[in-house]
Amino acid sequence: MNQYAHVQRDPYPPSLINIETEAALLGALMINNGFVDQVAERITPEDFASGLHQRLYATILSEVSAGRAATPPLLRNHFLSDPDLEAFGGPGYLFELTGEKAGVIGIWDFAKQVVDLAKRRRLLDEMTSLSADVATLTDNPVEQLVDRIDNALAGALQREQTTKSYTIAQAFDRTWEAIEAEAAGEGPQGIRIDGLDDFNQLTGDLRRGELMYLGGRPSMGKTALAVDIALGAARAGNGTLFVSLEMRTAEVVTRAMSSLIFEYGNSPSYENVRRGKLNAFDRERLKSARQAVDTWPLIVTDPATLSIGRLAMMIRRYQRQMVAKGQTLDLVVIDYLGLIRGTDKRAKRYEEVGEISRILKQVAKECDVALIVLAQLNRECEKREDKRPQLSDLRDAGDVEQDADVVMFVFREEYYLERSEPEVDDKKRAGWETSMAAARDRVELITAKVRNGRVGKRLCYFFGSHQAVRGSNYMRDLGR
Fold first, then answer.
1. Topology of domain 1-158, CATH
2. pLDDT at 161
3. CA atoms of 239 and 368, how far apart (whole Å)
């Protein structure tokens, strides 16, 4: 017979309350106070379903934090007048918690279940309240109710926010173990982009929690590169979300289709793909590409607007979708920074973008994803003789480089050469033709900041009429 069967239960389904697990956890903490600090990082008193257990846990925390032992004899006097103690068998209950069947083995399983059930109860409370509000015609707009639902779901999924401290020796050992595990192909890995080794080498493989800005002037190929990054990440098995604020999903996917079937000298242009002007061979390749992407963990979305305050909620929503499919969300690509709205409509744009950038970094860490955000550069670079971007070209956008872990620029010299073509009889024509031949179909990827690596650049290929970006070895691999 269940020894706690006589205890009054809270008004929740029996499946959401486990008095036995709560008792086992409290008993383990009183047996070994050494676990209290670690458990306290994960569990609050409100996570216990029983009011008595809430007060007992709070007292254990208080006693241990004051440097005193938290054992049944020493805690007994705190609970002699507790109104709920009698229902549990009186003062002897504290001693039962540390009796013969008690122990610290399984303490983390106990803690995990207490936290999980607490989240479920809170979620049920919120859903019950929301259900009543949805059914009642009030002044609250539907959008506000949707936000509450998002917040409730996010709260149920959110990891415990803990701040852990280690001695330098402990930190050394943990860090070295993580390095060894990654070197052996175990544990968390960096986010590699299949087909773009130059990008991987320049960024040092993005890690979850990192924020990267991909900057450039218009017509430099930022979106084409971003689409190929998303495709390459998903092809490599990384869960990816592409957020397009500038183009509709159909346009993004058409660019992806054009890139997926691109073969140098033997594939339709992006414009022909968009218009459906394809031969039978092209259609077969599209059919093969469709079969390939069927299992890729890539989601494309094109919200009409996006405020920085809703970004984390949106990311968590897609995290839930991927979790339901047995996947994880590792990378989020946003096109682009200038279309994200801040929280203060009265703020100057410089201040607004600065706020957005700070929150983007927080979101990357909180949601445990790598964030790549496209950014337009100001016109200062075009006033220089060497038009390659510099970090200073981002500063009119709120000092975003300070928040970034990686800043990469996209630069195409071909774009500027085309606009400075000399006349046929101009004596500068020969030099221009030489420069143009070297720059044709080429794009520079330039890292101006890499927090965990070195700055550098790679000269890759950009086939603009196909919206396809390829690595620096692409033509060599084709034998050209």
1. DNAb Helicase; Chain A (1.10.860)
2. 47
3. 12
